[in-house]
Amino acid sequence: MPTIPVYAAPSAKAPLERTTVERRAIGESDVLIDIHFAGICHSDIHQARDGWGEGIYPMVPGHEIAGTVAATGPGVTRFAVGDRVGVGCLVDSCRECDNCRAGLEQHCSGGAVPTYNGRHKDGEPTYGGYAKQIVVDENYTLRIPDALPLDVAAPLLCAGITTYSPLRHWNAGPGKKVAVVGMGGLGHMAVRIAHALGAEVTVLSQTLGKREDGLRLGATHYHATSDPATFEELRDRFDLIVSTVSAPLDFDRYLSLLRTDGALVNVGAPEEPVSLNLFSLLMGRKTLAGSNIGGIRETQEMLDFCAEHGIGSEIELIEAHQINDAYERVLRSDVRYRFVIDTATL
């Protein structure tokens, strides 16, 4: 069992620190991946600080992983040493339930195994991508197309699929008006992908501070939600609203922006409960929904789509010793738009 350098949270809310963990030995269908880049997702912060419930410590966050294959198990057929690969938010599932068979491993009835802050089927904890290497079953490993640089591809393994999946499922495309709530790590990817799908895109952000970026990335319109006139001007406007924010919304106000049969889909996950007046759904036959990443097949589809359309994440590359500072900056919305760790600095 190899010992690997990592950055880990030793306990809830403690700063991350450099340490080591043991990776499992390479099994029959496993690939050993040299990690080159790992994105920092807001969910890393939620979990490292027990925001979504009790964590497993020491915790090695990171589920936006890009690198190359260093070795393969004897039964591996999909990958060879040197291949460019990625790992997203899950590394195993039951493989037998209806959802797994349908390519919806993220909704596995037996419980998908998360890339970190979870447990493998043998009970051992999972450790994520703030690390030099990771061992993953080939069936949960993604191929990163040559057209995508590994550093800007890393955030696609969470931010990309988290926004691609609902946009596809709710049929964003030509003739559809799509609003994206929030212009951050998830939001900027939603803008790029919705635009590439052919939808007319509007950004709804607290202020107009990122307006130039939003328009550059594909939005046609950009509005400040801090201005009450926005909700009057845009009433009954959108077919689909994708909320990427991790804070509670005034859902009644946002639902008023939907056309009849429109959907408001949440991919951000606030730590606090939310409230809703059900008349906001009844009037207009509207839908309030959620979406959680995507399955392995859809994640590969997303990577291929992004390569075809030249879509990568807008990143700020950092060294490992800057991780704790990056966490604080994420909480202040002080990043455009995804921190990515250069794991060579571990």
TrEMBL record:
Stored PROSITE patterns: ADH_ZINC
Reaction equation(s) it catalyzes: a primary alcohol + NADP(+) = an aldehyde + NADPH + H(+)
EC numbers: 1.1.1.2
Family assignment from sequence similarity: Belongs to the zinc-containing alcohol dehydrogenase family.
Protein name: alcohol dehydrogenase (NADP(+))
Chain ranges of the Enoyl reductase (ER) domain: 14-341
Keyword presence, Transmembrane helix: no
CDD domains reported in the protein's UniProt record: CAD1 (cd05283)
EC category: oxidoreductase
Key words of the record: Metal-binding, Oxidoreductase, Zinc
Co-factor(s): Zn(2+)
Gene3D superfamilies per record: Medium-chain alcohol dehydrogenases, catalytic domain, NAD(P)-binding Rossmann-like Domain
Single GO MF descriptor: zinc ion binding
Keyword Zinc: yes
InterPro entries the UniProt entry points to: ADH-like_C (IPR013149), ADH-like_N (IPR013154), ADH_Zn_CS (IPR002328), CAD-like (IPR047109), ER (IPR020843), GroES-like_sf (IPR011032), NAD(P)-bd_dom_sf (IPR036291)
